């Protein structure tokens, strides 16, 4: 085993410069998704005249499927090549995306752009999460993940609002998509020039863990994360359903709001509030999961999401939709960092990157399942039925988590003990 350098230390305070840099980079990663939240579904329906909801959401299906498999590969690549190289590779796939959307003469170009975006997100976002968890060690995982997801999803919200405003002023293309060009160039440059790899931090953490678990194969890690470990199974199914409802909202909400008379600027506000609240609140919910535990926040968050989705389906007023968007963002903020932290808690440092990649595979496969199933339901029964059906499934997933997951108190106890020892 390679011995870690004595200068390497775990903790947010000890690694704050690299941590802050990765926060900024993940804001650019999230912003790449934000350019699509408001504008791209409307490009499909208004510029290309696509009447079928199922066909409109195919760009999310391509994104979700490709991102899921990129996630699955990312942990393996991170262990073999190093985190930084995989992060840079993710940006290389992301660089062409805004240009394809800018110049797309047909919907097939948009689908191809989102396949590349899926690879980019699967590699780049995965690395920002894994590297932050590597840096802080076991006592601050919730905080690390909360700050990472705050940066990413707050950027999604800000960009959704900005592109919606620009689209209202200048049209759906090209002006709003220029934002994505800026994000891609800056994110790639920072990753190449300033990021340092974190494998030495993993070596340091492994020194304090039993070594008998470190020889697990990828197949064994996949089975553990998918169904053999009850906590990892509970997290994987909840993550899948969480992104299933996010995929539905990405594709269906702009069409639903437009069908009920909202203009693109107001749609942009609603599409910005949800990820904006999601991003901001994770600064609180991530650390809270370190103190209170993961399970309660996950279960309650899934049920708050279900309430928000049902409220959206049953009302026809901008004010109620705004409240529902706030609740959807809050519920997702309770769930998202808690799930990643729960997976990290249940994984040995030597295979944590692979376990997180399997979890993120199932989670992001939810984008494709949610968009496709919601599109089919909407074409058959109408948009409100699609939203309501996903709300019911989200509630059920929360109930499964409540029954299956067992709270792991080790991380919480360590956090409290550390506070007492420094008090």
Description:
With 423 residues, the protein is mostly helical. It has a single domain (16-196, 217-422), classed as Growth Hormone, Chain: A (Up-down Bundle), CATH 1.20.1250. Helix content is 82%, strand content 0%. The protein has helices at residues 16-37, 39-47, 53-56, 58-81, 83-94, 97-103, 107-136, 141-170, 178-193, 199-206, 218-228, 230-259, 264-292, 295-314, 318-345, 352-381, 383-404, 410-422. Helix 12 runs parallel beside helix 16. The relative contact order is 0.16.
Annotate the secondary structure layout.
Blueprint: H1 16-37, H2 39-47, H3 53-56, H4 58-81, H5 83-94, H6 97-103, H7 107-136, H8 141-170, H9 178-193, H10 199-206, H11 218-228, H12 230-259, H13 264-292, H14 295-314, H15 318-345, H16 352-381, H17 383-404, H18 410-422
Keyword list:
423 residues, Growth Hormone, Chain: A, disordered N terminus
Can you summarize this structure?
The chain is an all-alpha fold.
Looking at the overall shape, the CATH architecture is Up-down Bundle
- What's the average pLDDT? 88
CATH superfamily (homologous) name: MFS general substrate transporter like domains
> Per DSSP, what share of the residues sits in E-state strands of 2 or more residues?
under 5%
**Any idea what the radius of gyration is?**
20 Å
- The first-level CATH class is given as Mainly Alpha
> Structural class, please?
mainly alpha
Largest sheet: none
Helix content: over 70%
Q: CATH topology, anyone?
A: Growth Hormone, Chain: A
Instruction: List segments where confidence is low: pLDDT < 50 over at least 5 consecutive residues.
Output: 1-5, 410-423
Number of strands: 0
Number of domains: 1
Helix run count: 18
The best one-word shape is globular
Question: What string, H for helix and E for strand, traces the elements in order?
Answer: HHHHHHHHHHHHHHHHHH
């Amino acid at each position: 085993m390679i011995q870690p350098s004595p200068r390497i230390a775990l903790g947010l305070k000890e690694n704050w410069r690299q941590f802050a840099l990765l926060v900024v980079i993940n804001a650019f990663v999230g912003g790449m998704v934000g350019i699509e939240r408001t504008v791209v579904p409307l490009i499909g329906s208004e510029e290309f005249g696509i009447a079928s909801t199922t066909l409109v959401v195919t760009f999310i299906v391509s994104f979700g499927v490709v991102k899921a498999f990129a996630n699955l590969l990312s942990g393996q690549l991170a262990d073999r090549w190093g985190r930084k190289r995989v992060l840079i590779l993710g940006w290389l796939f992301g660089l062409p995306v805004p240009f394809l959307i800018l110049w797309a003469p047909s919907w097939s170009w948009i689908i191809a752009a989102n396949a590349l975006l899926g690879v980019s997100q699967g590699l780049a976002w995965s690395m920002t999460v894994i590297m932050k968890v590597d840096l802080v060690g076991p006592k601050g995982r919730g905080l690390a993940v909360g700050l990472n997801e705050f940066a990413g999803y707050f950027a999604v919200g800000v960009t959704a609002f900005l592109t919606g405003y620009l689209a209202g002023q200048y049209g759906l293309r090209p002006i709003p998509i220029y934002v994505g060009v800026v994000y891609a160039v800056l994110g790639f440059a920072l990753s190449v020039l300033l990021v340092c790899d974190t494998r030495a931090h993993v070596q340091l953490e492994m020194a304090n863990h039993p070594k008998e678990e470190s020889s697990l194969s990828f197949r064994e890690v996949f089975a553990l994360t998918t169904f053999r470990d009850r906590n990892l199974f509970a997290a994987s199914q909840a993550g899948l359903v969480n992104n299933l409802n996010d995929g539905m909202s990405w594709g269906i909400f702009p069409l639903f709001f437009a069908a009920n008379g909202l203009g693109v600027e107001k749609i942009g506000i609603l599409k910005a509030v949800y990820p904006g609240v999601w991003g901001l609140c994770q600064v609180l919910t991530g650390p809270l999961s370190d103190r209170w535990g993961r399970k309660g926040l996950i279960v309650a968050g899934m049920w708050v999401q279900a309430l928000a989705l049902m409220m959206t389906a049953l009302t026809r007023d901008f004010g109620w939709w705004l409240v529902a968007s706030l609740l959807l963002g809050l519920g997702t903020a309770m769930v998202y960092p808690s799930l990643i932290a729960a997976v990290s808690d249940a994984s040995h440092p030597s295979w944590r990157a692979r376990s997180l990649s399997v979890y993120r595979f199932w989670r992001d496969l939810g984008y494709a399942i949610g968009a496709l199933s919601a599109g089919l339901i909407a074409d058959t029964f109408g948009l409100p039925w699609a939203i309501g059906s996903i709300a019911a499934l989200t509630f059920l997933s929360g109930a499964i988590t409540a029954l299956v997951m067992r709270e792991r108190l080790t991380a919480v106890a360590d956090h409290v003990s550390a506070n007492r020892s420094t008090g």
